[in-house]
Amino acid sequence: MSSTADELLASRDLFAVGALVAVAIVVVAVGTTSVVRLPFAALLLLVLPGYVTAAFAYAERERGPWTFAALAERFALSLGGSLAVLPLAALLVSLVAGELTRWGLVAAVSAYVLLVAGATVVRRARRSPHSGGRSRGVGAGGDASGPAGWLSDGSTAATVLLAVAALLAVATLGAAVTVPADGEARTDLHLLTEQGGELVANEYPDALTEGESATVTVGVTNDEGRSVEYTAVTELQRVEVDGRSVVVVDERGIDQQSFELADGESRRESQSFRATLVGENVRFVTHLYRGEPPENPTADSAYRTVYVWVDVRPAGGA
Question: Does the record carry Cytoplasm as a key word (predicted)?
Fold first, then answer.
């Protein structure tokens, strides 16, 4: 076998790392559920950066066989290295892009893994008896230095416990990275008004005369991780407020629109309404549903609900 072939064979783990990066990116991009994306996102963010970092650091040292103890030790070292690299990558993305986004972090980590893997292949290629590279560690027995092939030999029991702890850490941190926390709004519903040619979240109409018209822009942003079909129902309501209880005593339907948004897509629709209900406790309401709404839309049945309060004075009266 040629020297070049030997060098490539010695770095087969790094070529596998490159393939895993590609697969992880594809799965994170097209995965329909968090259950599908979670293992690959955890692998990309919490294992591969540390693995290539350690591989680069010990590129000129002989690696031991892939025993269970060696695998456990390398996994633990990979996790620790990844936890050191990940915050730095997040900080870099925030500084460059102005905000930390999922794809910004994935791109930064993927670039780091691939670049360090490539540099490690080059360093391993230079390791030879003729180049002066150290193929064995110090010691009378010629045992490999660096972790198991990288780490020094240790207790099997301690190695198992360390691997279990690392696995639990991966599961916990991976879930935190890829699964939204309970109650996190994954679809944003908001109301805007136009001021000076721009849409802003203030200066809502708060006082109208009966029969007068006003305009509010209804905005929806989909961050569900998939395409979603929505239905927006807008109403004018007069309510009675008793402590924390709000009871709708009269309502007028304004509009109902169905539309589909891809993941990350936003929609803004201008809604004009006339003040046909009189009183102090009148509000413009938008109910948002995923799919078809019920016959009688309410805040309790809606996926999202937003509203603005309006005082409506009687026409020609106090």
Answer: no
